[in-house]
């Protein structure tokens, strides 16, 4: 009996991946561990291996397509003559409705695809993203309009003569992030003005105390956001359906632009770090980013973010919210001892007043410059 | 071109890219205090040193004592290549 090879999840923020390449022709013999195909997201490429010996019967999807995580990618058989099952036949449809609450991923996917949780059969105790994707896949196979993803590519407009240049992975990621901001978040922006002297003095003292080669100003300000998120879970949340999902861990996103390279670094579980550990962890990530060696884990599952354009003497910028986050703080270039501290936020999760309060708290360090004690969780 | 001059030239190029006055830096000036490079610029300079001189600098060595000036960088590079 043929065995389905399913599309794996590459990172938490991507429910769809791009089928980028095949390595094996249909009908070819394969052994367990042979690489048969490659998929990619904005952040990483992942190879797909045969899970057993046999023959590759064929690919269900086409190279270049965006496919849902959990969908059947290919089929393996014990002989090259076996027939590929109908797609609908493999959709897990044990019948009945969900036996429990949807997971966060499932809730996000339900909202995106326009399904109701009660309509989607769950394979286990809770409704998972895999359940939703299987349901969506079976409905697509039946050609129902309701199963189509709400987010469809913009139609190609009629353009004057020119050259078509395919976007690279990072550029496609930016398109996706901006699209989430536009289509899903109810984005607002607030800004305060603050005196930079307290932070400048604090960062200089920290740098001197730890003999750091580079100024820790931006990492320390980002860490202040982490401190605030520890005490206020709403900062570190997203809206899923009619609920607010408060993340368990604080994964701090930090924008890195080096040359033409733009990345959002993910300092994972930053809420458990001391300030010094956070500065070091971010430093290592920045170096990896500048070398172009970031892994998918180092750029994904971000829950709250910090960005600075001070390097370019920018005095105000309105950041774009990373998907499934509610707050991104924007640091800017100061003049005459004053600077703007702004934030984009998802108005479904936070109010402008709450964000202004957060910014006012961020305007000063949580302790005095001469305080040598490490801030800890 | 010796190691110190190569680093000095790199610092000037980086400062120019950041739109800052690319003045020559002496061997003993503390680079973060020159105002020529911001933190990301210093990180990029150190990454260039790693590539140019084929060394890997661990995070714990990112200190003013090791890499704070051109003279200290040269000394660090020589110690790592010895």
Helix-strand layout with pairing:
The complex is a heterodimer of chains A (377) and B (82).
Chain A: E1 3-6, E2 16-22, E3 29-30, E4 35-40, E5 45-49, E6 54-59, E7 66-68, E8 72-77, H1 87-90, H2 104-113, H3 129-141, H4 169-183, E9 187-195, H5 197-210, H6 217-231, E10 237-240, E11 243-246, E12 252-258, E13 261-267, H7 275-290, E14 304-308, E15 327-331, E16 338-346, H8 352-362
Parallel strand pairs in A: 12-14, 14-15
Antiparallel strand pairs in A: 1-8, 2-4, 2-7, 3-6, 4-5, 6-8, 9-16, 10-11, 12-13, 15-16
Chain B: H1 3-17, H2 31-34, H3 39-52, H4 64-67, H5 70-81
Helix pairs in contact in B: 1-5
For this entry, give a set of tags.
heterodimer; A: 377 residues; alpha+beta; OB fold (Dihydrolipoamide Acetyltransferase, E2P); Chloramphenicol Acetyltransferase; four-stranded antiparallel beta sheet; 16 strands; B: 82 residues; mainly alpha; Non-ribosomal Peptide Synthetase Peptidyl Carrier Protein, Chain A
Structural category of chain B: mainly alpha
Amount of helix of chain A: 25-40%
CATH topology of chain B: the name is Non-ribosomal Peptide Synthetase Peptidyl Carrier Protein, Chain A
Largest sheet of chain B: none
Structural class of chain A: alpha+beta
CATH architecture of the largest domain in chain A: 2-Layer Sandwich
Q: State the helix count of chain A.
A: 8
Low-confidence stretches of chain B: none
Largest sheet of chain A: 6 strands, mixed
Number of individual domains of chain A:
2
- Quick one: CATH superfamily of chain B? ACP-like
Uncertain parts of chain A: 87-99, 141-150
- Annotation field: number of helices of chain B: 5
Oligomeric form: heterodimer
At CATH's second level, what is the architecture of chain B?
Orthogonal Bundle
Question: Kindly state the mean pLDDT of chain B as a whole number?
Answer: 92
Amount of beta strand of chain B: under 5%
Chains forming the largest contact? A-B, 19 and 19 residues
Shape of chain B: globular
State the distance separating the first and last CA atoms of chain A.
53 Å
């Amino acid at each position: 009996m043929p065995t389905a090879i399913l599309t794996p999840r590459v990172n938490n923020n991507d429910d769809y991946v791009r089928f980028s390449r095949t390595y094996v022709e249909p009908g070819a013999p394969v052994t367990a561990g042979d690489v048969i195909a490659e998929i990619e997201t904005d952040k990483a490429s992942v190879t797909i291996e045969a899970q057993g010996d046999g023959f590759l019967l064929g690919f269900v999807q086409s190279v270049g397509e965006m496919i849902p995580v959990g969908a059947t990618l290919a089929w393996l058989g014990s002989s090259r003559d076996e027939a590929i099952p109908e797609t609908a036949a493999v959709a897990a449809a044990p019948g009945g409705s969900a036996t429990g609450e949807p997971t966060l991923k499932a809730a996000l996917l339900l909202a995106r695809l326009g399904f109701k949780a009660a309509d989607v059969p769950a394979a286990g105790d809770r409704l998972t993203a895999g359940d939703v994707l299987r349901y969506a896949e079976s409905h697509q196979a039946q050609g129902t309009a309701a199963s189509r993803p709400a987010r469809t590519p913009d139609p190609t407009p009629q353009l004057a003569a020119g050259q078509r240049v395919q976007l690279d992975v990072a550029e496609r990621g930016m398109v996706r992030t901006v699209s989430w901001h536009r289509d899903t978040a109810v984005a607002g922006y607030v800004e305060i003005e603050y005196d930079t002297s307290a932070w400048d003095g604090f960062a200089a003292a920290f740098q001197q105390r730890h003999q750091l080669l580079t100024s820790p100003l931006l990492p320390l300000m980002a860490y202040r956001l982490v401190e605030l998120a520890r005490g206020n879970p709403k900062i570190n949340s997203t809206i899923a359906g009619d609920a607010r999902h408060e993340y368990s861990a604080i994964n701090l996103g930090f924008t890195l632009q080096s040359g033409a390279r733009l990345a959002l670094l993910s300092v994972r579980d930053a809420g458990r770090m001391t300030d010094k550990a956070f500065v070091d962890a971010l430093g290592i990530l920045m170096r990896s980013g500048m070398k172009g060696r970031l892994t998918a884990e180092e750029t994904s599952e971000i829950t709250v973010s910090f960005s600075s354009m001070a390097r370019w003497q920018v005095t105000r910028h309105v950041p774009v919210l990373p998907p499934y986050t509610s707050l991104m703080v924007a640091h800017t270039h100061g003049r005459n001892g004053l600077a703007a501290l702004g934030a984009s936020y998802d108005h479904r999760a936070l109010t402008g007043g709450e964000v202004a309060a957060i910014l006012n708290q961020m305007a000063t360090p949580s302790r005095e410059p001469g305080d040598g004690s490490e801030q800890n969780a | 071109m010796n190691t110190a001059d190569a680093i000095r030239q790199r610092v000037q190029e980086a400062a120019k890219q950041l739109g800052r006055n690319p003045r020559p830096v002496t061997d003993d000036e503390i680079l973060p205090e020159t105002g020529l490079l911001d933190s990301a610029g210093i990180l990029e300079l150190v990454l260039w040193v790693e590539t140019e001189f084929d060394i890997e600098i661990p995070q714990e060595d990112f200190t003013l004592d090791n890499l704070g000036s051109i003279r200290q960088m040269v000394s660090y590079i020589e110690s790592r290549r010895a």
